[in-house]
């Protein structure tokens, strides 16, 4: 009985915790960057657009992290220890950036330097996301599967996702014209 449960514990030992930690670090940098850019938004339109951008892909980050943990053999509790900090990163960064601006400017009007900082963090958030997607998700997903059918299925789903988001952008661009 005891031996059995010990054996079970053993099988839950993560295979490669390094890759889970690396993904968390990458996503954390990304999440803090997007949190700062959201916190530095002062108009409703900017805030709403930024909020929607984050809202639309946030689940994707959490799913990536969770799947990475499951793939490496983490238990539910161990995986949660990675997911909870990831959930908190963006809101904490946002609140911090908001209060810094609120208390340093008083008016809520952003000085030029803050606008530059916001742009930098927004671009940084986009860059880190693209990097993580290609290195940690697409590269891992596309090579680890040896089955040709599932590889084609994954590739098609990937292209479908890209097409969907692209068409939303085209629609936005067309309706703003
Ligand atoms: Zn994000």
Automatic annotation (TrEMBL):
The keyword Membrane applies. InterPro entries: ZIP (IPR003689). One of its GO terms (cellular component) is plasma membrane. The chain crosses the membrane at residues 80-103, 115-139, 151-171. Pfam families: Zip. Keywords: Membrane, Transmembrane, Transmembrane helix. It comes from the Eukaryota. The keyword Transmembrane helix applies. It is a multi-pass membrane protein. Signal peptide: none annotated. One of its GO terms (molecular function) is zinc ion transmembrane transporter activity. It is found in: Membrane. Its main location: membrane. This is ZIP zinc transporter protein. It comes from Hexamita inflata. The lineage of its organism: Eukaryota, Metamonada, Diplomonadida, Hexamitidae, Hexamitinae.
């Amino acid at each position: 009985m005891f031996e059995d449960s010990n054996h079970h514990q053993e099988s839950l030992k993560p295979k490669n915790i390094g890759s889970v930690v690396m993904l968390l670090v990458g996503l954390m940098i990304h999440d803090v960057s997007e949190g700062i850019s959201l916190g530095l938004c002062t108009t409703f339109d900017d805030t709403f657009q930024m909020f929607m951008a984050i809202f639309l892909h946030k689940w994707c980050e959490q799913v990536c992290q969770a799947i990475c943990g499951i793939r490496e053999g983490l238990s539910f509790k161990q995986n949660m220890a990675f997911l909870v900090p990831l959930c908190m990163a963006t809101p904490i960064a946002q609140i911090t950036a908001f209060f810094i601006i609120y208390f340093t400017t008083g008016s809520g009007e952003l000085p030029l330097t803050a606008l530059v900082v916001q742009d930098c963090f927004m671009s940084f958030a986009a860059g880190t996301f693209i990097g993580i997607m290609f290195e940690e998700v697409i590269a891992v997903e596309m090579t680890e599967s040896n089955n040709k059918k599932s590889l084609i299925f994954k590739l098609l789903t990937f292209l479908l996702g890209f097409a969907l988001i692209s068409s939303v952008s085209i629609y936005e661009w067309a309706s703003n014209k």
